[in-house]
Amino acid sequence: MIINIYVYRTIKEDYLRDKEMNLLTQANMIATRTTEAIYESNHQFDQFALKEMMQSFDAQIQGRILIADENRIIVYDSFHEFNNKKLEHPNIIRSIKGETVVREYHSEQYGRTMYTSVPITRQSHVVGVVFLSVSLEHVYDRIANVSNRLIVMSFLGLGMITVISILFANLITKPIKRLTETMQKTAQGKFGGRIPIKGNDEISQLGVAYNLMSTKLSQIDKQRRDFVANVSHELKTPLTSMKLLSESLLMQEGGDIAIYREFLSDIDTEIDRLNKIIESLLMLVDLNEDKLTIEYEITYVNYLVEKVTQSIKPLAEQKKIKIIINQWHKIQIYLDQGKIHQALTNIIYNAVKYTEDGGKVVITLYREGNRAIIKIADNGIGISEEELPYIFERFYRVDSARSRKTGGSGLGLSISEQIIHLHQGTIEVESKEHKGTTVYVKLPIDLKTGL
Ligand SMILES: Nc1ncnc2c1ncn2[C@@H]1O[C@H](COP(=O)(O)OP(=O)(O)OP(=O)(O)O)[C@@H](O)[C@H]1O
Ligand SMILES: [Mg+2]
C-alpha cells in the first residue's frame, strides 16, 4: 500500500509537470508568433491578423487562449467572451511585469484548471500577455484510472500471495504434521507406525530415519515382551513344582517323616533353581548396562582356566568325565577375572553337562596372532545344525525335555557371549549331533602385555 501511494504520487507529479511544460512551450510559441501581429507604429495588435494566426493554435490547445495588450485589454479570446475588455486577473498583472506564471486552480464551475501566462516581448519591452487556461480534469481522470488499476492489481497480487503462501505452507506442514502424529502415537506406546516417503528432501530423509527408528523400537519392544514372557515362564516352573510339593505335604495325614524330608529336599532344589535363574537374570541386566565397568587385571589365562576346571571337577567326577587341559602357550592378558571366570564356567559346565557319562572334555589354550584362544571340545550329545544359530539367545534350550532333565534356564551362553564381547573377544561354536561340540573363545591380547 505504501508503494501504491508513492507510485500514485509520482505518476501524478509526472503527468502535471508534463502538462505544465507542454503549456509553457505552447504559450511561448504563441507569444513569439503574436509579435508578428503588432503594428510597428503604435505597438497595437492587429486583431484581424491575430485571429487568423490563432486558428491553428486553437485547434492544438484544448483550452482557452486569451491575449491581452500591455494595458490588459483582451485583444483575442478564443471563447469570444472578453474581447476588448480589460481583465484584472492577477496572473496577467504579474506577466505584464515580465513574469511567467503557472498555477493550478480548482473551481466549482470548471473543475481543476491550469492557468499559464507568459509576457509577449518586443525589443525587450513587454507588449502583451498570452494567457492559456486548460482543464486538468482529463489528466486527473487518467491518474485516477491508473491509481484504481494499481489498487485492483495490488489486491489481486495480495490475494495471489496469500493463496500461494497457504498452499506452500500446507505443502511443508503436511508431512511434518504426519510425522508429529506418528511420533505422538509412538510416544503413547503404539510402536511400528510408518511414514510414507515421497521424494528425497530433508523432511523425507527425516521420515526415513524415523521409520528406521520405529522398526528398531518395535523390535526392541517385541524382545522386551518376549523376555518378560520367558522370565515369567521360567520363574513359574519352579514355583509350580514347589506349590505342588507343598500341597502334597499339607495333605499328608500324620505322614512319614522320611516323605516330609524328601519333599522338602525337592522344594529346596527348586528354590536353588529359582535363585540361579534370578542371579543369571540380574547378571544379564548388569551386563547390559552401558555404564558397566570392567575391572581389568593382568592375568594368566592358564591359571584362570585351571581354576574354572577345578570348580567343575566334582560334577565331572560324578559323571566320570575326564577333563584334559593342554597348555601350548603361557598367555597373560588384561581381563576382568571375575567375569571371564563366569563366562568360562558356563561353557565348560555345558561341556560336562551335555556329555554322557564316561565322556571327555579337552581344553586347549594357545595363542594365534594377537589372540588368546581357549578351545573347549567335548564328545557329548552335540547340537543340530538347525538349532546351532539360536543357542546364544536368552532362554534358548535345544531340547526343553532334555534340558529340564539336566536343569538350566538357557541363559548361560547369553551371559558368556556378553562378557566376551565386553572384552572385545568372540565366541564361536562348532557342533555335530551325537559327536560333540567345540567352543572357541577368542580374546585379544594387549600387545604390550602379551608374552
Ligand atoms: N557343549 C554343549 N553340548 C551340547 N549342547 C550344548 C552345549 N552347550 C550348550 N548346549 C545347548 O545350548 C543350550 C543353551 O545353553 P545355555 O548354557 O545358554 O543354557 P543352559 O545350559 O540350558 O542353561 P544355563 O546355562 O542357564 O543353566 C543348552 O540348553 C544346550 O541345549
Ligand atoms: Mg549352560
Automatic annotation (TrEMBL):
Query: Mind listing the UniProt keywords for this protein, alphabetically?
Result: ATP-binding, Cell membrane, Kinase, Membrane, Nucleotide-binding, Phosphoprotein, Transferase, Transmembrane, Transmembrane helix, Two-component regulatory system
Q: Which InterPro entries match?
A: HAMP_dom, HATPase_C_sf, HATPase_dom, His_kinase_dom, HisK_dim/P_dom, HisK_dim/P_sf, HssS/ArlS-like, Sensor-like_sf
List all membrane-crossing ranges: 150-173
Record-linked SMART domains: HAMP, HATPase_c, HisKA
Q: Which PROSITE patterns match?
A: HAMP (PS50885), HIS_KIN (PS50109)
Q: Name one Pfam family in it.
A: HAMP
Could you say which enzyme class this protein belongs to? transferase
Q: Please state the Enzyme Commission number of this protein.
A: 2.7.13.3
> Does the record's keyword annotation contain Nucleus?
no
Task: Answer yes or no on keyword Repressor.
Answer: no
* Histidine kinase domain location: 230-447
Q: Taking every annotated instance into account, which residue ranges of this chain make up the domain HAMP? A: 170-222
> What chemistry does it catalyse, as a reaction equation?
ATP + protein L-histidine = ADP + protein N-phospho-L-histidine
Q: What is this protein called?
A: histidine kinase
> What is the native source organism of this protein?
Alkaliphilus metalliredigens (strain QYMF)
